Amino acid sequence: MTEERETATASEEEARLKRENRRRIARFVSVFVITTLALLTSYRYAIHTRLNDWYLFQVANHTAMTLDQIGRAELEPLHYGRFNPKETRAAIAAWTEGREAATEAEIASAAPEPLSAWERWSYRALGMRHNQEPRTNGPRVHFVLREGISTRIDATLGELNGLEDNLLVDPEEKSQRIAVVQEELQKLRLEQQALRRDDGSGKTDTSLTFPFILIPECGAIEIMAIFLAAVLAFPTIWRKRCIGLAAGLPIMYGVNVFRLTVLALIGALDKSRVWFNFAHEYVWQAIYIIFVVAVWLLWVEYIVNRNHIVTRRQTWGLPGFCLKFLACVVVLEILWLLALPYYGQVLLQLAGVPLRYVFGVPIEAGRIEAQEILNTGTKLVYTINSIDRSMSLAKLAANIPPYVALVLATSGLLWKRRLGILVYGCAILCGFHALFIVIVLRFQEALLHVSEIPTAVIVFFLTLPFMLWIVFAYWDRILSRGRENGASGQDMPPPETDAAPPQS
Fold first, then answer.
1. 412-455 tens-digit pLDDT
2. What are the distances in angstroms from CA 291 to CA 98, 227, 253, 318?
3. How far apart are CA 124 and CA 283, in angstroms?
């Protein structure tokens, strides 16, 4: 009887611990999803604010400072246009206050000093919002990796614009200096025309430049939101969460500056823009995830649990995990892109059935258009009422290779368990892909009134591999750690509190 009672008690305890573990997982998923979507959606609606103008300018400024160590970078360069200092400053002040335009008195009393890069960007940003221009813009960075005739023309044109807008220079002296610069600019343009005619001299334009605009999507808000949500969702005390956020968010910011620097280098070297686009849209998505995973794991392993789950045995620690992930994701990304048209056919049917038979969408035909390098331009196209409606498939389905790579790189999982995680994780991702296609095509007109939400949902798709990996693989790794250590059947570390331990 005693053994039966002990067995029953052990079974009840095991069942209780399983229920508790399921509740923890449910809480983690709920907090992660709600927090991520709230942050991403909020940012989409905060794009056209002065705070975001300032933030994007800081990202552009730090990127330009980094690129300056490699070549020459200029923020909001003068050769892009002219800005009268008095008129510009008065307009900025008026628009900031919500007025249509500055008065003559305000223009006359404005400071005459040359504009800073921040003022030039502010004028453009406020001007676009004042004129209700639909396009989203950002600070400009002009990166020069190697000088040539084109870069000399840009520099001379910038010098000319700066002189003409300088209200502090004596008019007679300004006229003389402008004449000299204009003459130099004319010579450079004639030299450029001669090079373009290819007169057989063998001379070429040696310029390697990459001008780019830092739009809101380049600000790393997405990876910061993923990291912040993962830290807030994981069960631990607030003190440890604050430590993780204080250390992790600056790292995410630095990673983004590094990303922009690398992309600028690739853009300067790749004049075709083919490899730049590939690196920008696909390669860095996977690298983003590994940085988020690595920093989050460091926080969980060394700050929260202090058990070093990943960093033990023969796995070479966290660097080994990251190397395995990178090796897997590179191979998987290429294979996935090659197989993308076939996956598109699957999504075409999965989404087409509910669209046609549940929502009554008059689909006349559907097809997959595979194009560009490694099928990166693949589109899913439905013909509805004789009108083609297309959707970028490569971007939508880009989250499957990182998920598979994360699961394969995780040590301590039995292959049967690992295979199961891969199957139902990929099935969930596939279901979300089909669901998104259905919602967008069925409710396209209604979504136009909440245009920022679909964009936030697309960005959220990039977080799904990370969340699913934590729930299916990392949580499982903690359980296996508990079993290996004989942790009395404890599935997870007990909830922590900030209270002091009881004194004996």
1. 788 888 999 999 999 999 998 998 888 888 876 665 555 555 56
2. 41, 10, 11, 11
3. 31
Q: What is the pLDDT of residues 58-100, one digit of tens each?
A: 999 999 999 999 999 999 999 888 889 999 999 999 999 988 8
For the whole model, what pTM was predicted?
0.84
Number of domains in the chain: 2
Contact criterion met (CB below 8 Å) for 230 and 35: no
Write a three-state SS string for 104-115: HHHHHHCCCCCC
- Per cent of the chain over pLDDT 90 is 36
Q: Are residues 35 and 131 in the same domain?
A: no
Residue with tokens 């794991």: 297
Query: Of the candidates 182, 211, 240, which is a domain's last residue?
Result: 211
Largest CA distance in the chain: 110
Q: Compare 500 and 380 and report the one with higher pLDDT.
A: 380
Do residues 108 and 144 share a domain? yes
Mark whether 224 and 242 lie in a shared domain: yes
Residue 246 belongs to what domain range?
2-46+220-484
> CB-based contacts of 79: which residues, under 8 Å, 6+ apart?
142, 154, 155, 157, 158, 161
What does the alpha-carbon distance between residue 191 and residue 210 come to, in Å, rounded to a whole number?
A: 22
| Boundary of a domain, candidates 177, 211, 245 | 211
